[in-house]
Amino acid sequence: MEIKKLKKISDYEWEIPKQGSMLVPGRIIASKKLIEEMDEKVYEQTSNIAHLPGIINYSLCHSDGHWGYGFPIGGVAAVDLNEGVISPGGVGFDINCLDGNTKIRTEYGYYKKIKDFEKEISTSLKSIEFEDNKLIETKPILFMKKPADTKVYEITTKSGDKIKATADHPFYTKKGMKLLEKLTPNDQIAVNPFEGIEYEQTSDEIIIDEKDIIKIVGNRKKLINTLREKNLLPLKYNSPHLPILTKLVGFLTGDGWLGYYFNKKRNQDVWAFKAIGKKEDLEEIKRDIEKIGFSSSNLRTYICKSNVKELDGSIRKIEGESIQFSVTSQSLAILLHALGVPQGNKSRKNSNLPLWLKKSPLWIKRLYLASLFGAELSKPTQNKKNKHYFIEPTISQNKIKTFESNLRNFLIDISKLLEEFGIKSNKIYKLKGVINKQNEETIKLSLKISSEIKNLIRLWKKVGYEYSTEKRQLSMLALQYLQRKVFTLNLNKQIVEEALILKEKGINYSRILEHASEKGASVSMVSGKLYRPSENFRITKDFPSFNEFILKYGLKENADFSWDEIHSIKETEHNNLVYDFTINHHDHNFIANSFVVSNCGMKLIKTNITLEEFKPKVKELTDHLFKTVPAGVGSKGFLKINQSQFKEIMQTGIKWCIENGYGWKQDIERTEDSGTLKNTDPEKVSQKAISRGINQLGTLGSGNHYLEMQVSLADNIFDEKIAKKLGIEKNRIMIMVHCGSRGFGHGIASDYLRVFDQAMRKYNIKVPDRELSCAPFQSQEGQDYFQAMNCAGNMAFANRQVILHRIREGFSKVFNKSAEELEIELIQDNTHNLARIQKLRTKDGTKKLLVHLKGSTRSLGPDHEDLSNFYKDIGSGICLGGSMETGSYFLVGTKKSEETTFGTTAHGSGRTMSRSQAKRQVRGDKLQRDMEKRGIYVRGVSMAGLAEEAGLAYKNIDAVIDSISKAGISKPVVKLKPLANVKG
Fold first, then answer.
1. Could you give the CA distance from residue 911 to residue 915 in angstroms, rounded to a whole number?
2. Greater pLDDT, 333 or 168
3. Which of 471, 488, 867, 959 has its CA 20 to 30 A from that of 898?
4. What is the pLDDT of residue 149?
5. Are both 446 and 568 inside the same structural domain?
6. 490 and 458 in a common domain
7. 743 vs 354 pLDDT, higher one
């Protein structure tokens, strides 16, 4: 960060001047060196916080500050209880994310890369309604991005679809949403493989104006005014309703009727149209018509009976049902005719590809074709002669013989349009017609689309069908089937190439075939290629037919997604940002690269164990705790509780733990808020959030969460008087735990982001960053979130308390002494991410404020009313963690902190680089060996996870402590040197 942008308050306090719509200035607590090392985003996010309604004095960021979600990590905002807001971004929660190039499916069939939604998220997305497994439209209400500070993996399915996502991103499986890190090869995940066309900006060129309407019906002002009022005239390429109109033009060119009849009462021609099709398809069309401001009749079913006269004079009787509805709006009917829908009996009228369509972006052309195909193109059908192939999809239309040339030209235009999508057509076939009611001879022309595999993949992946549920769902399965066929062929080819190399190296045949079988190839196929090598690869006989494939992988009848199997999951380098949405729907999912996807605090414990006593036991103890305190994404605790018990934990925090034998009574007064946040209501927490948290008590989680054993060396005790009161002696073993409410808090925050998006519109709140989504604190929405957030805070207290219980058990077992004999006593339990009501001094006197702590720790001076008797005369205890290589600190709060930083201080050393960058610079196994040489034993879930937490990825902990100490907001008591670490 550039110093010149800041106003210097003191050597350790800097101000971001109030500018633009900022309500207050910003302030940063740091040395000049730390300021210069901070990412520019810290400056930007601290400024953004200053826009929150009701904010007091200034927004704040501590010396450990780095880029976060909404607030920077280390950010603080105090707001007035009556005029201020509450924001999940100011409390802190992790987001699970996707690679920026991930293709996101939208309402109109085009895709946009997720990173391109940053400037505009009003586009409706395609999602799955899980109750009936159908495609629906949903709105993203929040766009999120962050550095890739967790592992990123690439999933490849057996149909060849790929996606890159963080380890904690959920994917829809047969057992519900499941974190990527918990997925394994051969697991089945939900897919909808249609891709569509990449979005292209439309122009403001006019397609239809008033003159075009007058040419059709004359100057009918009422009709023209109706179109103007509905923003349909003038109609431009960038008109918001053009996509729906394009779909209607395509469909009505195939099925339905549009025209006019003479109305005697009005003494004029009255225009209308009707659509014909299946019930669910017509209902979809009706919804689209309503979106553009028109209404339609109810669906009606007619029994149709007619006689068809063949060319040879014979009569063929036809009976059946016809479902249809009509739209009597003349303005819409005339507009559709102006856009190219034939008027009257289509078999006796010209059919032409609209001229305006030829100038449209490809995604608009797709809407026309897909809707026409929904009406006229045959559905995917397995070839009877060869079960692994499909018959040629065919589009057919009838005309009286007079219009044969026109129909041929129309189909040629369709063929040319398909070429723009890379789709090849075969020749046009002429079929015999019938004699119509006017005693005219008709002909039938059919355009057949090439059934070559790659051609059909392009047809069903890029164009597909609109307004035909049956064809759309079948084409999805057909597309997945063909993609799996291609993937299998390519895999077989690769395995055969490997087999031939092994053959040249002299490996025996049985071992080669065993290797091929392990890779998933047919042994007989590989064996044949070893004896008779050739370039031709065909699918093996045991590969299922399309009909067999449907039975195995189709979810069930009338479903818009199917099951695909994972081929591989590989960790991948990712140096860029990652992204996510919050979706305004209870099923919270969207379609990304064809996949259906969805989206703390610290404890310090002392012992009487000396360093000399500890050293012989370090590996045994660390290994034991690694087993008994689960770590990693999705880890589950040993404690099995029911919903009633979990709701009690949400309300009472560590009191439940103490009452149930998972702690000592003295732990309560050494925990902030006595380990129980008040003002809770489990009914404000969703069932989905509860399901994420109920099995995670006693678990560390992942990322920068840890359980570390440390030593208090004599020369690292800075205040012996306070240390003595706390029971901290030189050369004694200490334990520091860093973890929070796991997925429970994230689930609550995600739920309320959707609520707050609506609340911001309701209360007319505007902030510069969507990640600062908020609601008035005193509003119903604000109070609901506050109560739910406190439930998460109590779960976090309980989680760390259960871990303390496991630590006491582990030490007792390894040292063969009771926890009481070993004096394993809690010193302090801090919260890091919370919004807390706090009485503080302001320029307007002492008042209660709502203080948001985002990766920040409470720092209260002696005698503050919120302190327990244990801390009353020394100030609040502060656990401040460093990296696993450099050590941590314990400090106490000061009166100055209450006056200048809203009773807060830093919470750690703060990252200087992303996790991905750290992995590029450090190898986990080498780091582990180097640390062990320096006397630090480490057990981690993965080597990559260790690399992410290397010391070089963090700021100098001593520089951070020096800044907050000299700023007078915290007082160091002891520095703790790391000896062993259990990493998440």
1. 9
2. 333
3. 959
4. 63
5. no
6. no
7. 354
Q: Which of the listed ranges 152-156, 526-530, 931-935 does the model predict with the highest average pLDDT?
A: 152-156
Residues whose CB is less than 8 angstroms from the CB of residue 608 and which lie 6 or more positions away in sequence, other chains included: 729, 732, 822, 823
Give the CATH number of the domain where residue 122 resides. 2.170.16.10
Question: Do residues 163 and 302 share a domain?
Answer: no
Asked if 109 and 243 touch (Cβ cutoff 8 Å), the reply is no
Cβ proximity of 499 and 510 under 8 Å: no
Q: Does residue 250 lie in a domain region?
A: yes
Strand order in the sheet with 315-327: 257-263, 268-277, 315-327, 300-310, 425-435, 441-449, 394-400
Q: Which residues contact 763 (CB under 8 A, 6 or more apart)?
A: 775, 776, 779
Domain of residue 895, CATH code: 3.90.1860.10
Q: Can you tell me the distance from the alpha carbon of 706 to that of 884, in angstroms, rounded to the nearest whole number?
A: 9
Do 146 and 242 share a structural domain?
Answer: no
Task: Please report, for residues 610, 618, 730, 810, 815, the alpha-carbon distance to residue 613 in angstroms, rounded to integers and kept in the order given.
Answer: 5, 9, 14, 15, 9
Domain check: are 723 and 763 in the same one? Answer: yes
Strands 970-983 and 937-940: parallel
Residue 400's DSSP bridge partners are 442
Is a pLDDT exceeding 80 seen at residue 299?
Answer: yes
Question: CA–CA separation, 616 vs 621, rounded Å?
Answer: 10
- The pLDDT tens digits for 912-960 are 877 667 777 888 888 888 888 888 998 887 777 778 788 888 889 999 9
Residue 141's SS3 state is strand
Question: How is residue 275 written in tokens?
Answer: 């659509």
In a domain, 776, yes or no: yes
Does some domain include residue 717?
Answer: yes
- pLDDT at residue 754, rounded to an integer: 77
Domains: count for the chain: 4
The answer on 362 and 252 residing in a single domain is yes
Range of the domain at 519: 469-553
Please give the positions annotated as active site.
907
Read out DSSP for 247-311? HHHHHHHHSSEEEEEEETTTTEEEEEEEEEE-HHHHHHHHHHHHHTT---PPPEEEEEEEEEEET
pLDDT at 267: 66
φ and ψ at residue 967, rounded to 5 degrees:
-75, -15
Contact between residue 167 and residue 153 where contact means Cβ atoms under 8 Å apart = yes
Q: Taking residues 737-754, what's their average pLDDT?
A: 81
- Is residue 586 domain-shared with residue 517, that is, in the same domain? no
Cα–Cα distance measured from residue 80 to residue 57, given in angstroms and rounded to the nearest whole number = 10
* Spatial CA neighbour of 225 closest among 233, 235, 236: 233
**pLDDT given at position 71:** 87
The candidate with the shortest Cα–Cα distance to 164, out of 128, 113, 121, is 113
762: which DSSP letter? Answer: H
Identify whether 940 is part of a domain: no
Same domain, 459 and 477: no
Q: Is the pLDDT confidence value at 94 over 60?
A: no
Q: Of 35-49, 375-389, 466-480, which gets the smallest average pLDDT?
A: 35-49
Cβ atoms 598, 130 nearer than 8 A: no
Alpha-carbon radius of gyration of the chain: 34
pLDDT (average), residues 772-799:
93
Q: Read off the pLDDT band of 311 (50, 70, 90).
A: confident
Given 463, 491, 511, the domain boundary residue is 463
CB 576 within 8 A of CB 697: no
Q: Which two tokens stand for residue 456?
A: 């059909």
The pairing of beta strand 103-105 with beta strand 877-880: unpaired
pLDDT (0 to 100) of residue 600: 66
pLDDT category at 870 given cuts 50, 70, 90 is very high
779 pLDDT higher than 80:
yes
**Measured in Å, how far apart are the chain's first and last C-alpha atoms?**
31
Q: Which of 399, 430, 463 is the last residue of a domain?
A: 463
Res. 93 pLDDT band, cuts 50 70 90 = low
355: which strand partners? none
Average pLDDT over the chain reads 88
- Amino acid type, 57: N
